[in-house]
Amino acid sequence: MTPRQRLEHLADELERYEEELEPHFDMEVWSQRLHVDSTLEDLLHGCGTAACAAGFACLLPALKADGLYLYGGKVPGFGHNTASTEALRQFFGIDFRQMNYIFMDQCYIPDQDSPYFRKVSPKEVVAHIREVLKEMP
To answer: For residue 100, which of 49, 75, 88, 120 sits 20 to 30 Å off, Cα-Cα?
Structure first.
């Protein structure tokens, strides 16, 4: 897949699994109670598991086949010795601003009731991805 296709696939899968994913979706952590060999099923049905959009992406078989993985079971990895935000930038072919806009919880507008912390939904992440896709060739 091209980087653009990878990002489109992530948006499609977030939409597909939105309802199942919702209780395990947490944009404040890369992954929680997951490990290097974790699968999508582990996330969706594991007790106490959680992941953000990046952690979820690392568990998608098609993206794993293209080289995305959970480095140390905690953060996104891609290529040799590339982890965290740089891995996401390289894998999805996006710049730093676009990476932040999609994958960082602080780039989502806070609630009026709780200006610092709130739950970001998979649907909101999909909307951010679709905006970034409009900017890509």
So the answer is: 49
